[in-house]
Amino acid sequence: MSNHDLFQRFLFEDFQIRGEIVRLNQSYLEVLNRKDYPEMLARLLGEALVATTLLSGTLKFEGILAVQARAKGPVTLLMTECTHERQIRGIAEWEGVIPEEDLAMQLREGMLAITIDPEKGSRYQGIVPLERRSLAHCLEHYFELSEQLDTFILIHVSDQSAAGMLLQKLPAHNPEHDADAWNRITSLAASLKAEELHQLENEEILYRLFNEERVTLYPSEAVKFHCSCTRARTENAIRAMGAAEVYELLSEKSPIEVDCQFCGQHYCFDRTDIEHLFGKNILH
Ligand SMILES: [Zn+2]
Q: Taking residues 152-163, what's their average pLDDT?
């Protein structure tokens, strides 16, 4: 279908409420292909990928938005990223069986970090506890705390596809002439069924939900699975370990092999490569 793997913005002109729809198909399946994820975790990863792509719409500059959850288990790590070019990647780690119940049971005593990493300028990170029933509710909570912006997030994940909608009051939102607009619009959005979100064209979705309102739909953008790992970044990570530790590793096993967790890319560093990174180590 033509409307898969896309990000599209819309705007309620009369109320200064902005919206986005994200639908992931091929890009989601490419993330799932990297590991044999249990079904519940595959769904959670789909939710996180959709949420991250929705949140990437708040990037005001070139860079990466990352959503990362760490917890005591059974899901121990959930990490998804989206760039301003809508390139996504993600991984998860787990131990044991993942329950079907709410998020707080899947990620016990977990924290959710939202990191904005601009290509130029300084990094920003906001953190919220994973205390709500779903990732969408946790992120609504995050916006409430960090930006005082009312935000609505709806996410539906099926076997093949993950999709979501975000609505957010803009700072210019002026409810005076229609105090009920936010409640009315979010109630209508909440009535959107999973199959409608997965299967309908966005024009059709907006028409079915909001045909009484004035809505502007902007051109859609393609979303792709793309890993940002490079040999140069892997070299930086090796450099950060320090010469002593790296030369010790090398003496145990040469070459040093590094596999990217997100995409499976294999990087290999032999003694000549390592000497190039650190200079000839005087100890060896
Ligand atoms: Zn990679």
A: 94
